[in-house]
User: What shape does this take?
Amino acid sequence: MSELRIGRVLSWAPERVWCALTDPRALESWFWPRETYGTVAEADPRPGGKYRIDAPKAGIAAAGVYVTVEPPRLLVMTWHWCDEPAETLVTIKLDEAADGTMLTLIHQRFADDQDRDGHQQGWSDCLDRLPGWLTTATEPV
Assistant: This one.
């Protein structure tokens, strides 16, 4: 099975990055591309809790179950597109770095390299938008 790894150094504390990853209002602001406005997110970040990130106008939605939740360092969750039965596993690690936080995303259990490569592009796009939210958001952490 294929897996992908993506790393980003972010200029914010792990607690703030954690908020961006687990707060539904934050996810609505940065997760999908801007052209998919109208994003609705639900998140219950606890083991066994569910999440769903839905962009109804774009016809895309992803959902899953939180497996491991260790704020603000480790988030493990299942992932599937809501119109497909295949389920994968996403692990996000947040480690303190000299200038903020090292985010490491590991997405596993892809059926093939083509599926992995498509997700790599999607995750890269999302993570490229994350600093914009971190810079402008006023949500407390």
Observations:
- Residues 3 and 107 are 6 Å apart (CA to CA).
- The radius of gyration is 14 Å.
- Residues 113-136 form the longest helix (24 residues).
